[in-house]
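step: validate -> pass
step: tokenize input -> pass
step: predict -> running
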Amino acid sequence: MSTSGVITTGLSKDLIAWLDQYAKKKKVSKRSIFEEALTVYRHQKKHEAFQRGFKRAANDREMLELAEMGLEDFNDQLNALGL
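step: predict -> pass
step: emit ->
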């Protein structure tokens, strides 16, 4: 079974020209540029989702209480280790 897929899409002429020039300059494939760009984009979207989750949790009193309890436990563990 193949571990990759094919995507066909249209891009502006300016973007295609930049992509061609950049790939030649860096001596990398256009595929690798797309993969890196999509990997960075995916990471950014996950980070944004975490931020939204933390912002929601910050407004939830029960979540704040649980976090404070966890910090107290962590502090107790550090103290027990002499740190």
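step: describe -> Helices lie at 13-26, 30-58, 61-80.
step: cleanup -> pass
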